[in-house]
Each structure stands twice: as structure tokens, then as C-alpha cells.
Records
---
Amino acid sequence: MDCNYRRLCQTWSLPGCLHTFCGNATRWSSARSVYICHCSSGYARNGFLEEAMDFFHRMSERNVISWTSVVAAYTTHGHSEEALALFCEMQRSGIQGNQITFASVLPAFADLGTLEYGKEIHEDIVRRGYQSNVFVGSALVDMYVKCWSTEDARKVFDRMPKKNVVTWNAMTAGYVQNGNIDEALKLFENMPEKNIISWTSVISGYVKNGHFHEAIELFQKMHMTALKPNSVTYASILPACGNLAALGHGKEFHKDIVKSGFEDDVFVGNGLIDMYTKCGSIEDALKVFGEMPSRNVVSWTTMVVGYAVHGYGKEALQLFGDMQKWGMQPNHVTFVGVLSACCNAGLVDDGRWYFDCMIRDYNITPAMKHYCCMVDLLGRAGHLDEARDFIKKMPISPDAALWGSLLSACRIHNNIELGEYVAKQLFDSEPNNPAHYVLLSNIYAAAGKWDDVQNVRRLMKERKVERIPGCSWIEVNNQVYVFRVADRSHPQTPEIYAELDILFGQIKEVGYIPNINFVLHDVEEEQKEHFVGHHSEKLAIAFGLLNTSPGIPIRIVKNLRVCADCHSAIRFISKIVVREIVIRDANRFHHFNDGRCSCGDYW
């Protein structure tokens, strides 16, 4: 009777049945304390913590099993402080923990990040001779990893006589967490056994450290094994597609997600929205958003930000209004998206209102990103004096990103005096950032102050600051191709340049005039056109036209802000070739279609 009843209490997951059995247990007289112990354990295993503690407190005698049961339950369900309090109370009562007790309580130390106390427990474990136990050792490795002490974790790992897949995964996760992807990969390759957590950990590590190609390759390699990706695996790989603008891979993974039944997972759904947004397909992002059975604040925020970076300001604000109607509380990231939407669409009055609304109605203290959005909004719209006054009234010191936004506005509106002042702030705070020098140089060039242009370039040379070369990439048939300025490394170089020559001839006939304002004045006019004509995004477009079917949109990513000449040329090209051309530059998306751009030439 006792053995069967214990098994029922430990494994039964139907609350009603568990309550019935345990209700009867309180009325049975024989071995009542034994049944109460089993009921406490049963409730604990099923997450009914109040009921478990109720039976726990009824016990006339408590042993290490009953204590361990409730400690493990509180740890498992995220109540780490309560778990540690119970563990300390157990020790004060004179009950000595066993191997299972220590393996159960160590995750609580890991969750709270209490490294000092964790080390004390480690010493106790060594004194009792439990360090060689694989479960205790794995828990120690995990604790040190989560307390950011990878070195201590590795010492425990290396001394363990026996390791299981949990141990290997914990140590690998430690190196991933600290950005040491090479060491994580070494461990991964030497694992005697790998499970889906092993693969997901390294894939996630690649993505977090910017190795997007490697992440996709590893995911594809995993697909050739018998293991099936879970929702966490898919949520981990989708950002790699987004950052590479690898829409083909992203759509393949989306199909697999649907086949695997994870399309209703909110985290996977959020990942899909973000991926499609970054790949330039706002329509697909909106479709995923609309089909999600449940959405959280991240879902709404990701869609608002998506509209914002694509230049659809009014749609972003409308969606934000819908978010409020649904009773979803926006957070600080949501308001970054809202303010960015106002900025990219030139909605100055709306931006001012939402900034005040964030503080007044939602009690959100503005962070640097919010201030940066406001300076960008005001500066880009030509309110440079108001932007400067706004900065003076800020309760926090402006950072380089904020000054950079104002310097960009000075370039747009040719404000030399303010531009020189802002550039000085940037040269002092970020003397090695070439973008600041280039912006000031362009301000001078637009004003025809060529001596000042030369002085800026001379300063760059003295400080050994080198310009970041323009770079664009395009995905064709699930392969990403990279182009640089005047690139001639591609096997199709002759065809690419021939295609460009044809395109330039065609767009000049319909009104295109090369913008050579920022090319040095002592260069011949024809040579100036050559400089701007071979920018990386133009080469990528020519390649895309040569290697994709008519009517297929061309999607390109550029590492820098698209220049005025390329923006003008691509508008004309989109009309000539009857294609949508989507460019994701360092700041935003540009959708070119039929000779127009989604930004309305406001960027």
C-alpha cells in the first residue's frame, strides 16, 4: 500500500486526483506521517507549493528526503530565495543534505548569482566527498557559469571523473556566454554525446558573436542528424537570417517551423517578425504578426519598430494605438520604435507629443536612445537650434550617438558653424571613428570649402583614422554575395560592369544626373562620375539583375548610409527595370519602386 501510494503521489499530474488521495491520507491513521510525507512530495513535484508546504509543516518528523523534495520544488519553479531559506533551515535543524539535496539547491545559487555563498557550498560538498557525483558536479559547473566564473567552472569540469551531456552543455554554455566561441566549439566537437541543447547552445553562440554564416551552416549540419530542432533552436537561428538579410534561408526555416508545429510559439513568432523585417519583407512580417494566436509586448514592439525602420511612420503609430486598445503596456523599447517612426517620417509634432506621453502617461524615464531619437527628429527636420537647446536641457550627458545624429543633421542642412562645434565634441569622445570626420568633410565639400576638406583628411591621416569601405551584400539562390567599392573580384565582373554601363545610359536618358558634390574638386568630371558610379550597392544591383528572374524584388544590405547619388540612381533604375529594389543601409530601409522611394527623399 505504502509503495503504491508513494508512486501515485510522485507521478500523478491531475490536481483533482492528487487532492483526493492526499485528502484521504489525512484521515488514515496507520502510518499517517509516511503518507503525509508522500503527499508533500507529490504536491511539490507537481508545482503545488502551498499545498506541499502545508503537508510539510504537518509532519511530526522530517528527514532529508522530505526537505530535499520541497527545496527542489522551490528551485525548479523559480523561487530561489525561498529554496535557499529552506536549505538553511534544514541545516539548522541538524539534517545533513545528501547528493540530491546539493544538486537541487545549487541552481538557486546560480539563479541569484550569489557566487560567494556558492563557493562555501562547494567547500561543503568537497568535505562530504560528493564532488565526484555527476549530478552534483554538473550543478556546480552550471552555478559557476551562471555566476560568470568560467575559470572555476572549467576547474570543476576538468576534475570530474565522469561527465554526462548536461555537464558538457553547461560548460559549453559558459564559453558561449563569455563570447569565447572558439573554446565552446572545441568542447562541442569533443562531446561524446550531443543533444538538441548542445547544438542550440553553439548555434546561439555563433549568432550572439556575429558569426551568422557559421550559425546557418551549423544548423544545416544539425539537420543532417537524427535530432529535430525545438522552438529555442529556431528562435536562435532566425536572427542570423535577419542580420544577413538571407530571406531565402529564413523562408526555408519558416516552412520547417510550420511543419514542426512551432508556428504558434510566441518566441518563434517574434523571431519570424524580426527576421522578415530585417530581410526587407515587411509584408511577410505583418502576415506572421496577424496570424499569431497570442502576442506579448515584444510582438507588438517588434512590429512597431519594423514599420519605423521601413519608413512607414503613420502605420507604426496606428499599430501603437491598436496596442494600447488591446491593453498591452508599452515599454521603453516600444517608445524607441514610436519615436523612430516619427523621425523617419518627419512627424515632428507627433514625436514631441509621444515623448511627453511616455513620461507623463507611462512613467518611463527617457534613456539615451529616446533623447537620440528626439535630436534626430528635430535636426533632420531642420530645427537645429531646438535640437541644440534640447541637448542642453538633458539631465544626462549626451553620448557620441546623439552628437552623431546632430552632425548628420548639420550635413543635411549645411550648417557649418554648428557642425564644427558638434564635430569637436565627437573628435574628443571618439577620435578614432572615421564617420565623424567624413560627415564634417562632406559639410565642407557641400559648401565648396575644399581647403577645410583637405584639413580634415590630413587630420585623419595624422591620427591614423581610416575610412570604413563601403560594402553591400545580396542573397541569390540562398547564397550571399559581397561587393565593395569598384569591386572586380567577382567571376561575373565583365558582365556586371557592362550591365551598369547599360543602366547608366538608360537612366541618364530619363533625367538622372550624377551627384558628384562630395568628390574632390581637383578631379576631372568624368573621373568623378566613375567614383560614384561604382559604389558597392550599384554593383550588387547589377549582379542581382543578371542573376534573378524578371519581376523578382532585389534586396540589398549596405554597411553604411546610402549616398545621395546612389539614392537618386536607384530610383531611376527601379523605374527602368520595373523591379522593387529594397536597400537596408546603416540607418533604415529604402523601398524603391517605379521611380519613387518609401522615404520620400527624407532620410
---
Amino acid sequence: MAASVVNKTAHSFDKSRLEALLNRRFFYAPAFEIYGGVAGLYDYGPPGSSLQANIISEWRKHFIIEEGMLELDTTIMTPAPVFETSGHVARFADWMVKDTKTGDVLRADHLVGGVLEARLAGDKEARGQAAAPPSDDKKKKKKTAKAAAVKLEDDVVKEYETILAQLDNYTGPDLGDLCRKYNIRNPDTDNEVGEPQQFNLMFASSIGPTGQHPGYLRPETAQGHFLNFSRLLDFNNGRVPFASAQIGRSFRNEISPRAGLLRVREFTMAEIEHYVDPEDKSHERFADVSSQVLTLLDRKVQESGSSQTVQMTVGEAVASGVIANETLGYFVARIYQFLVKIGINPERLRFRQHMGNEMAHYATDCWDAEIHNSTGWTECVGCADRAAYDLTVHSDRTGHPLVVRQALKEPIVTEKEVAEWNKKALGKTFKADAGVLQKLVEELPESELLRLKSELTNGSTVVKTADGKEFQLTPELLTIERKVFKQSIREYTPNVIEPSFGLGRILYTLLEHSFWAREQDVERGVLSLPPLVAPTKVLIVPLSAREEFAPIVQEVSAKLRKAGVFSRVDDSNTSIGKRYARNDELGTPFGITVDFASVKKRTMTLRERDTTDQRIGSIDEVIDVVSELVNGNITWVQACERLPAYDGVQAVE
């Protein structure tokens, strides 16, 4: 008998049911809840912690192991000069607005986006195109803009859609203009809001008992990579390209975190810094991913006011210049493969290119992996070509050269004009101006040096500073000679390609994508988590707590442990059906039933979560099949070919 087909779309997605399940089964919960909680801070319970650990484990395999990366673990507390140099103190900020009467603070771009989206939803309802979803959650109603059923003029609809398509590209003053032009108010109070102001997102602190050494909790792990570049390069035997990787906590003092795990103040990141020669951004394994098809939303489309995506291969995107270079394209493709592997729905995954105003001034190109969920499209991974900015600014600030010294196979021989000074005479003649004059001449281009050389041959020449001051030079002070230079070492600052993962956001969107309800009973929720990341892989269900089942349960548990398969035993007094149902909520993909036939004939049944199909086999056969299922070596369809269907009755004789 073949595997059954299951209908996962019989009931529409219900976020309130998912949130109730996640809260009831303690995937995560508000931190400090018995003290009233703090917005944007969450604790993970046992299934949430295991799910995150399994996602991290797969991330390590997919990136660190398969790509041969160097793993780091750097400090969270960071001295202020580091972030002053990186630009975070000056620029790591969001725009906020205040309710003019209550003083409530809202993030400006989220306010504009939320109000305009609500108006568009109301317009659709008024036109009969869509009904506003019912909600009995009064708190939720208060926190979101009300979608009143009001029909808008067609040109107004087009304006709103254009604004939403370009929302990430607006500056603070632009957002203020939009609030005034479209009468955008605080949806909680209907009060006007003030002018947008910048709010730095870093948590400030101090290091040591005196408070004389200011510091910050890091908002990203990246700076720890850059400051250790010289050591990493030495560890890698001086060779580029290479990548460092780090998984760790980061902190951002979000203005108004209201979206659960999608916007928090403390979170786990996984970041990669891939160092590459700026003159060669090809990737040796690009051919392996060049045929990967992606859904792309490029900056030109967004700037035209549209959100229309296109599908193309990574190879086509790089060849046509949509994605800047092979290394960036390679990591975009690898990000896609990772997300799909852990269970993200590929039809709800797109890559959006940053527009001009939202991209860092030093970046060459940047793409966000955005995952669609009940709140819209959410950035979960960023992949940027940061050029040489970070290494350059830290090197300039500290005087420590963060560069690669590459021995050339063939020396480069060049000729150029060189200024030769009579420094004693120069100092005597020009005194305090001698140094300024020397620097001015030595920075001149070749053509200017040739002009000076010609004029000196005829007696003297005049050099002017930017402020108009003139200096007369004679051959006694300066001669210009052509010299031959032989370069056997090339020194350069590498560029950095940075994929940056927000693991909490990925975890939450995965839970949304995995959640559905049984066709015959909407109250029976299921999380179809892939075995790869499911918190528990196998549930062992003895028919009852009778002592005669204990040896078999212990044997099966031991064999699964030896096979590297994490399992749990549920020997509670409730029915087997209820035990399976509550583990379907936890995303446990497989269940093993131990009954009287297991004792007498050493057989047991294997249940698959989504279809609820059961197969039967000997203890060792079932364990072998489960091990291969969990390791991804076979599918459930293939497992059904190896084990016969269970008809609901086991003979014990």
C-alpha cells in the first residue's frame, strides 16, 4: 500500500491558533512574565530551544563544514571606540515619531506602512475583493491600524502601492512629509504624530567600576570578525579567499517591538564574513549553484513603484549584472538552499535588493532573503558586499595594517618619475613650509612631475598650493629622476561579502510555514517540521505503563540513541491517539508503538506524523528505517516500500 495523501489546506491559516499552541507547548514565552514582562524579550522553552539548536546545527554543517569556514566566538561587550570607528554610533539608528498628546513612540516607517496597508485592505473589502479577517483578540485590534471598509480613488490606491514599494528607501524627513500629506496618525489613539527623530539602537554600557570606559552591547557580531582579521589570515596561511563564521547573541534597543520573535531586543545571529580579492570576485564553486532558480525583486523595479518579482537563475542574474558578482551570487543561492532545506516554503521566499537610500554608503550590492508570513514580507537574512570599508576604517583608526600581502609569481617592473630633495637646503629655504611643499610635490601626478622636470632643466619652476601660495624651486632644491621599481609583493585590503542570519525570525517563519490543522478537526493542530530540525525525532509509545513493556522500551531507546536519533517516551495514562496528537503539535515526525506483539514477536509499528499512516516491521527493521528517515537518506514514500502497512491488528501468537 502506497503512502496516503494529506490535505494541509483544508483550513485557512489561523495565527491565533498557532500562537496558542506555541504558548501552551512552551516553544517560547515573554521573558520575566510573572513580573509583567518586557517588550521584545523572550525565553525559549524545551521545544523552542531544541528547534533553534537543530537549526544552528544544520547551519554549521551547511556553511561552516561544507564551505571550510573558520569559526569564531567573540565578546558581546564592546568598547565604544570600535563602534565609533565602524560608524554605528553615528548611523545605527531608526526613525521614530511621538504621539503629540500621549508621548507614545512608534517607528516611523512601520507606522506609515501599517496605516497605508490597512487603508488598502479596507479599499479591497469595500470593492468586495476581500473580506477583513475576523478577530476576537482585543489586544491585537488595539495594536494594528483599523482596516475600515472605505473605497479609495484608483489614483490614491496607485499612490499608496508606490509608497509601500519604496518604503525602505525613504529618509526621516520623507516619512514626516508622508505623515502630513496622507494624514497618518497613531492608530491606537488617532492623535497626530510629531516629526521623525533618529534613535540609536545600541544598548550603551560602561566597562569597569569607574565608568570611564564606555561600551556597548554589540548589535551584530561582525566587528569581532574584522578586528581579528590578521590572526584569521595567519591561521589560514595568508591565503585569500577564506571565510570566518560566528553564531552568538546580539542586542538592539528596538523602538516599538510588537511582532513577537520577528522584532526583538535580544536575539541570536549567525554571520559570515567572506574575504575576497577586490580584483577577483569569482567563486570556484559558482558553477555548482549557477542553475539555481531564485525569485528576485531588484532595486530598479522597486524604485519604479512596483513589487513585481522575476524568476531567474543565479547564473543569469550575475551575467546580466542584476547581482553584482559571483561570490555574492554564490552565497545568495546557498542561503536559499539552506532555508528550503530546513523547511521554509520556497513559494514564500524571495530576495529583495536594497535601494539606494537604504544601502550603506560603502556597500556595492545587498540582497535580503525575505520570508512571507502573517505580517507580510520579513527580512530574515541579509547578504551584502561591504567592499573594504570595515577593514579600512579599523586599520586607519588603530594603525594596524589589516591587509593581505600576496607574493607575485612574476615581479611587476614599473618606471616612474620620483622627486629627489636636498632636504638641508629645502629646510633652510622654506623652514615651516618645507614639509607641506614636499608632500604637495610628491602627490602630483606623473604628468605634473614631467612638467616640473622640464621647467627645472630650464632653471626653475613654481609650485602653487590650494590656497594660492607660491613656492619657487630650483635644481639645487629639487631634481626629478626616472627610476625603475620592481614589485614582488602585492599588498591589498580584501573586500567582504557578508551573509547575516536572524535565527529567531527564521525559526518563527518556519513555525508559521509548518502549521496546519487536520481536515476532520480544526482543533488538532500539526507542525510539519522536517525531521532534520524537529525538536524530537521519534516518540516511543508503549501501549500502557505495564512492566512487561519496559525492557522493550529500554532496548528501543538505547538503539535509537546509538543511531544518533533523539527520542522521547510517553507512557502517560491517556490514549495512544491523544499521545500522538499532542506530539503532532510538537512537530515530532515519527512514532513507534510498543505493544503485546512487540513482547511476543518483537515487532512494532511506525507512524508518520502528517499522514498518520502506520507501517509494521521487526524492531531492528523499524529502527533502521527510522534512522534513514531522520538522516534524510530516504523519504516516507520509500519507507512504505520497505515496511508493509499495518492493518490495525497484530497477532500475538
---
Amino acid sequence: MAQYTRVSRSVGLISLRNPPVNALSAVVRQGVVDTVERALSDPDVKSVVICGQNGIFCGGADIKEFGSDISGPPLVPMIHAIEAADKPVVAAIEGLALGGGLELALGCHYRIAHSKAKLGLPEVSLGLLPAAGGTQRLPRLIGIPAALDLITTGRHVTAAEALSLGIVDQVTDQDTVDAAVKFALSVAEQPLHARRISTHLCPRPLDLDALFEGAMQKVRQTAHGAIAPVACVQAVRAAASLPYSQGMEREQELMATLFTSGQARALQYCFFAQRAVGRWSMPSGACWNTSKPGHIRKAAVIGLGTMGRGITVALVQTGLSVVAVETQEKQLMEAKQAISGMLERGAKRRGVAPVLDLVSYSCNLHAVADADLVIEAVFEEMALKEKIFQQLSAVCKPGTFLCTNTSALDIDHLASQTRRPEMVVGMHFFAPAHVMKLLEVVYGPRSSPQAVATAMQLGKKMGKVSVAVGNCRGFVGNRMLKPYMEQAFFLLEEGATPELVDRALEEFGFAMGLFRMSDLSGLDVGWRVRKGDGLVQPGMARVQQGRRYSPLGDLLCEQGRFGQKTGRGWYQYDKPGSRVARPDPWLHSFLEEYRARYGLVARRIDHQEVLERCLYALINEGFRILEDGIAAGPEDIDSIYVFGYGWPRHRGGPMFYAGMVGLEKVLERLEHYQQAHPDVPYLQPCSLLRKLVASGSPPIHRWKEVIKKVHSQL
């Protein structure tokens, strides 16, 4: 709704009210139409201020309305009526002015923002474009290059940047509504024609064609197949080349195409999935709204390699006091220097002072004795982690939460090394830990709800998308990654090249193909894991533990080809540490010799087979994870893959993608490949997938009904 009052005798004050962000629902839009008409028809009102209640102007459209028939007054005529008003209308922007909220503000004649406000047009992140005049007014107001930047990226700007760009007229540290009312009084009798942005001519740079060609090339490179950024460029081009009314028609045409697209559905699913994972539950019945987190004042990190350093920075940036422990003096000094540098660079980016005094360093494990939460981030070796958890059990106070950053090892086994297994959970960060958004919070059968709640809340404070998952080898992300990677290896054996596999995956939307990513991460990481699993044997057999196995990665590692760090891996690089991957003739010859050695005949492999074998194997393992109860629902898996493994957001996540492709097709292709490769057991379609198909392939939001039946039968 929208509330109306008259203040300072001649200012009509319209307050948007729709908690939590005053979204422009049908009721709010109707309220705005009614109150604007009331203010304009009141002869005692000389000017109008529009604000939002509870310190937020407006977070934009009500996304919950997207999947239904939209009722109430349309947004575009409502904003046009405000702009056409014969009395000055001032937007008092506090908190947020995003999407339709900023478009509403652009329809006002003046904009006053609080210094802490954030403004932006993030529709592109939902697979859409600003369709209430945003692509037409913003370029007219701030110029084409700046408008393209904001609209195609969806990034938020501070009030200070908005002022420098010309989006707002004034920034205040005081009460924004008071400032806007005073401003409205001062402009009450001034002419308004020049304040109506739709009447402005769009500034046209001399190199207009080159500008748009460059912008289009840039978004195609960064969008990885997403169509919304491309449509945004097209809409802004309409602003530059057409009269306002025709530009609006073009904006509406482009929006109509996007609104019903599969990509928009996928991106909006991601939006809701990200929120759904915060409402976690455990098999015991404990859940997010019944479990109280512990209070964390001081945290500790043990092991200051790459992961430990990133975790330390992430903790410090939340304002926690952190003790960082590394037993090797030389590594401790290197880590201290690296962490200080990361904190200083991060503070500079955010425009704040670095908080170096929140970190203390020690070589002694006893320094963590008074910590409320400890995160172990040492080398991925069970014996070493066992020893540390035994020591932590003796050193730490009884209420300390004991967390491990292991990426695959048994949480319950580590918990058994302590006197209080209920305080142990996994906090699996992704490198670089202070940058990557995902945090897998792993609970074992003895983990307490309070321990899970504490880790989840801490992840939220660090700005992570935290997902609670059960304990198994590899948890969710790495467990699914294993069949995905194995299929890629098998494709190389059968005739593919790393370039072909990577090209197929990158055209699908991954920022980096599997083999380029392997070179970046380091081939030796997986080699070490396979050695630990007893898979690396003399003679490099292609059958291990009764199933097909590819020793290709092991053979490369034996040659010292660990990827970018050595300048050679699946690709070649100009020098160790270089990032530019080039096809390697040596690798191609090696693959030919390997096939000849094992009697394998190379065949033609197309992109479709690459996608089906790699992605459907990964998806099939996802269904097994749901069947096993390791993940509570498909949203958990999809959030993990979007935020931690580079799955393209406009594809929704692996489980969403399976639903879009059609569960029947996924099942049929898995059966086809399982018959062709009977020595690969994980290609056998999961029984949950079969049950979903037998149930008529319900939409993804109804999968949990079938999953519950499977669990009750078990």
C-alpha cells in the first residue's frame, strides 16, 4: 500500500509500505496511483515527496508476481503519470532503490539520496531488463557508456557514485525525508519541462556504432550464452537511435521475449533457491527456525596455506577477532604478510580502513584455547586432521565449536577423535575462501543443531551462500564432480581432445572448461586423492576395483605436468604460472600413443555427447544424493553448483536443468550410455530418477513429495 499525508502545509508525502523492501506489488502500485492523483488534485499541495517506510525506498518489482497473471495498474503508465505531473515530485531514497524502484525514482523530477543508499538496475540477474523505462531514461540522464555499464551488469552503486554519475541531485547524511521535503518546498514554483528525463535527447558520441559493437562484444564474452545482457545492449541502442516512445516500444518487445524465456525461469529459480537453502533442516527434524546459534566473539584458524589465509580474511572482514595458527615459523611469517595484504586490498576496494589489529598470529596450538569457534584448514590428510582434533579436544574450552575445512573426508570420524562430537561440523570453503560465495556446512549423525546453526549463521555474516548437507565422501559438490570428471577422461580415451571437451562445456555456459579448470587447480590435487584411495597402481591398469578407470591424469602427473603451476598440464603455457592455455601437440601425441598402447580406436565425438555424458552423469549422482538424504532438496544441489562450481546461472543448476531438458530424456540417455559402457556403474539411472519419471515428471518444486515417499519406504 501507499500512505498519504500532507506535511509542511504544502507537501504531499507518499510513503510506500510493503515490508521488507517495499516491493511494487499490485496493491502498492494501486496505492501510488491513488495517492499521486490525490496530491495533484489538492490545490493546497504545491509539491510531492515519495519515500519508503522502514528506511528503504523500494527494492523493485514483486518477483512473486512473475509467475502469475499480473493484476493492478501497470508500472509504466504509473511512472509516466508521475513524470507528467504539473507539480514537482521528489524521490527520497533511503536504503535501496533497485530495479523498478530506481525506475520509479527516474520518473520523479528530483532525487535526494541518503549517503548510505544503494541504487541499481539488477533485472539482468533475473534474466530480464529494466522494462519500466529504465533502459530509455538512464542513458538520457547519464550517457550511454555509464548506462550500459549499470544495465548490463546489474551492479549497485553507492549514493556518492550516483551523485557523480548524475543519477541523484543531492546526497544527505541527515534525515532523507526531511531533506526531500525542504528541497520540494524550494522547487515548488519552478518549471518542470527540463526535469522530465523522457524529453531529453540521448547524448550521442561520435563513435556510436563502435561503442555499441564494443559493448556487444564485451557482453557476449562475459555472458557465456546468457541472452538478457545482449537484450540490454539492444534496448540502450534503441534509446540512442529512436525517439522515446519508439524506444519504449522496443524495450517492451525485448522484455516480452525475455519474460517467457527458459533462462529467465532459471535465473528466477536461482534467486528463490538461494533464499530457500537458508531454511535448512536435518534428518532429526531440527531446522533453521528451531535451532539457536552460539555466540561467536573470537574465532581461530589452524593451518595458513591458501585456504587458511582466505578463511582468516573472511572472518576478520565480519568484525571477528581471529587467532591464526601455523606451526612452521617461515610459513607463519609468509602467511602474516599475505593476510595483511589481502585485508588492505579488500579495505581499499570497499573504501574503509583495514582492520589488521583483529588478527593475532601464533605457532602454538594452545593459542586457540579461548576461541569460541575453531576452523581447521590443514593439509587434506586424515592422520594429520585426527591429531589436530585430538589436540583441540584437550586444549579448547567445552563450548567451543570445532570445524573442519575438509573437502571430502569423513566428518563423523573426525568428530569421534574428540570428547564432544556434537560440537563438530564441516565448513567447506571454496578457493579463494574470502571471495567465493559458497560454504558447504556438513553435519554428521552426532552434530548438534546448535553447531549447524552457528556455522550457517557465521557463513551468512561472511556473505556466503551457506548450504547444510549430510556427511558422505565428497559431500555434495565433490561427490557429483567425480563422475563428471571421469566421463571427461573416458571421452579423451575414446577420441576427444581437451580442447573439444572444454569448448562444449564453455559453449554450454561454463566460464572455464573442465580441463582448463583442472590446470588452474593443479592436477596433483586429484592425483593425491586417487593415491589415497588406492587407485594409482603400477602398470596403470584401466580397471580398478572392478570398474573402468582412466589413468590419464596419473600419467600426466608422473611426467611432472601439474597444470599452470608447472607450465604444462592438459594444455601448455608460456611459462609456469601463466594463465593463457594453448593446445599442446605433445599432449595430442601422448593421447594417440596411450590409445595405441591399450588397443583403443579413436572415434568422432561431438559436443552433444560431451554434454550428455558429463552433465547427465553429474545429474544422476545428484539424484542419488537426494535419494540418500545428503541434500534436503534440489535447490541445495543447484545452489552448490551455481555458487561453488561455475554452473551457469542462466541454466538454473544441474537439477533444474534436468527438469528443463526433460527427466524422460535424461533417463533415456543414461540408459543408452550405460548399455554402451556397462563397466561404468554410476551411469545406471538412479531409482529416484525412475520414480520421478514414473510419477509423470513433476515440476522441480514437487520433487520433495516423491523424495519423501522414497525415504519413507527406506
